[in-house]
Structure formats: structure tokens, C-alpha cells
């Protein structure tokens, strides 16, 4: 039995690093990881404040199911993030754009 390094599997399926298909795959993976991190931060802050998903949902006018989706990294828009974090008492946030600087989100 032969094991194949994951990088070789990626190269075979998506192409080598630097090809359009591989770059798109890498971008999508990075985006999914980032939204999962945002969702986890929402969950951790909600738990720190001893709030249920229902209670947080009531604060922003959505159902528990939507909060669950947010915490799992789904359906996160800038508008939604702003509403959720403000409901959790986070009054300011910035986006670090690297060499382009930082942008205030709210």
C-alpha cells in the first residue's frame, strides 16, 4: 500500500500552485477558514456573556437557526457581522488590508 502526500493529490486534482484552478481553490479554502474563525469568535463571545443562541438572535432580530449558521461560518456578511458584534457589545472593528492599510468597519 502506498500513501500519497496531500500536496500531490492537490496538484493532481487542482493543478500546480500558481495555476488559475489551484489559485481559486486556495482562495476558497482560505475564505472558508476565515469565516469559520469569525463564526467561532461570535460563539465564544456569546458563551462568555452567558447568552443562548435564542437570546442573541432576539437582540438582532433573527432566529436561533441563523445564529447557529453564523457560528458555523455560514452566511456571514459585513452587515450581519456588524449587527452581531454590536449586539455583543463590540463597538468598533477594523479590517487589516496589509500594505493597503486598515479600514474601520463600524
Quick structural overview:
The protein has 5 helices and 2 strands. The protein is mainly α and 106 residues long.
Describe the structure.
This protein has 106 residues and is mainly alpha-helical. It has a single domain, classed as lambda repressor-like DNA-binding domains (434 Repressor (Amino-terminal Domain), Orthogonal Bundle). The protein is built from five helices and two strands; from the N terminus they run αααααββ. The protein has helices spanning 6-14, 20-48, 53-60, 64-71, 78-87; strands spanning 94-96, 102-104. The protein has a two-stranded antiparallel ribbon.
Strand order of the largest sheet: 1-2
Overall tally of domains: 1
Overall average pLDDT? 94
- The secondary structure category is mainly alpha
The backbone outline, from C-alpha atoms, is elongated
* CATH architecture type: Orthogonal Bundle
Residue stretches low in confidence (pLDDT < 50, at least 5 long) are none
Which characteristics define this entry?
106 residues; mainly alpha; 434 Repressor (Amino-terminal Domain); two-stranded antiparallel sheet; 60% helix; 6% strand
Write the layout of secondary structure elements.
Blueprint (H helix, E strand, L loop, with lengths): L5 H9 L5 H29 L4 H8 L3 H8 L6 H10 L6 E3 L5 E3 L2
Antiparallel strand pairs: 1-2
